[in-house]
């Protein structure tokens, strides 16, 4: 048996029964530095994983192999491979990101570089910040400035201001310019009202105050980790020789989503590698808002000895490829080829109101799952934004049709997750010494989440009867203390569940308080995850609980010894969450969920999960959210990118161009991850009651008109335009 066959046997049992194409097998066994490019779904990552297996089975020491991806979630195929028990023993492959590599290196060489990098206490260890803890320290510094009038005309939530200042620092680090030039670059491209220049200057001041505070207290947010690594660790001969000697075999996947400084580093690293495989998707770059530089990635072809391009998709069917071609032409306002065989790849139905459209979507999903025996995990429902109300409307409809579902909405504020709010409300009730009194509305939502089968009407009735906000100790009455009529309306079964929860909180409050993450773990494990409680059957709530526990634990590690004003770390954490801190990314949330659940997600979230499915449902097709960028008054992903010429103004024409390109890239990316069919959810009136007339709907109308499938209802909407 050849080494490739051995590797393939391992791959079969790790990923799925699989047969490598000749091209993939050639990539697995190739030597030297290779640049592999191709569209999503053409088998590049499978070939890269096969190469990893081949290296291990051919005797290469595992600890000399470095696998890098732009974000940890994209490394999941490699992790699944490395968890297989039949892999050769000895050492561990390093799977990381540039940020992870920077953190490990800074930690290792800290005594050598700390003083040179400007840290005030090089004799003390560094403290690495997550996104959440970085926002916490940023809030402590910036809050007094906001109260004094800073950033008054930037009409976004304070938590978003904190995250955008941090985003500016990160962009300076990953693009490779001094963080002191952020405002100058933004102002040089601004052509609107002069008052915006003041906002940029104030945001610059906030960034520089934060950077000084970090240097004084040995705190390293993402930007400072990267800059310390690139400017002080990597240039040192000792440090560089250590990294180059240790990692002699590189696999770098999804290069197009990585940053300019990552590409610079790779360019210097390649001549010292025994082997290297660089993998890039064509026509991608979904993380531009985080500094991704696709053009920089493609330029690395010239420094590799071999360049390979995979042309054929192993995922999409010919009708879906025809649909992608037709939509691409329609979006660019080019004539749609008349001979496209789209056939079964597109299904749609026009409705007047959004609830009717959601009913149609839920019926079609149920039909796929129950009548055609399709796996629920092969169905995704996508929208530009998945609001709470849209998620609730879909979830209730799917549950009514007995279709399991799950959702994934990363980068939301922790307080926006109902399950997180439930846990923090119960924590506040169990810790009266904090002085945080949950409102009646908070209690209603918490009870509806915590008790299985309790709807909002009965939750409201129960909360009104049992809540005593000014009582000493636990401010909740037992169920038996409320009027009998109310007991009968709520039902005794739910009353028993409420009493069990209340009893647990009362017993806890009578003892010594635990650290917040320990408290949450016990509450989840001993009560909420048990049968009869709201977290028992819901994947989303369990996932939210796990993320909150991890977040609280990391906050305690970083800020637990330094809470101001005599507060406990738990109080500080709860207040930080209530202020709207944006959640960090949790790898567990990105891992592929159970195959028996339909996924509800924003479109870009699904793209970055990088997995194909059989069926996609696109909702709110008329929404301009498919086309528009997020409103970010303190930053700009294109002006702060490396390709943007310094001093060139950002015009409306530039804005229109990048929006068109963004929508084109998004649609092609979605369709390359669809095997069989796309369902379009069309409604004349959107969730907000207004008519949706976005560019995606216009492109769909042009495509349907060219194919003679434009219905009277859709044509009516088109004529209004």
Describe the model:
With 721 residues, the chain is an alpha/beta fold. The chain is built from 30 helices and 14 strands. Helix 15 (318-331) packs antiparallel against helix 28 (652-671), helix 18 packs across helix 19 (440-450) and helix 23 (516-528) packs antiparallel against helix 24 (539-559). It is globular. It starts with a helix and ends with a helix. The model has no long low-confidence stretch (mean pLDDT 89).
What is the spatial order of strands in the main beta sheet? 3-2-6-7-1-8
Helix content: 40-55%
The percentage of residues in β strands lies in 5-15%
Question: Between the first and last Cα atoms, what is the distance in angstroms?
Answer: 65 Å
The total beta strand count reads 14
Quaternary assembly: single chain
> Structural class given helices, strands, pairing?
alpha/beta
Major sheet characteristics: 6 strands, parallel
- Average pLDDT value? 89
Low-confidence segments: none
In short:
The chain has 721 residues and is α/β, with parallel strands linked by helices. It is built from 30 helices and 14 strands. Helix 1 (3-14) packs across helix 3, helix 2 (22-29) packs across helix 3 (44-57) and helix 20 runs antiparallel to helix 21 (484-490).
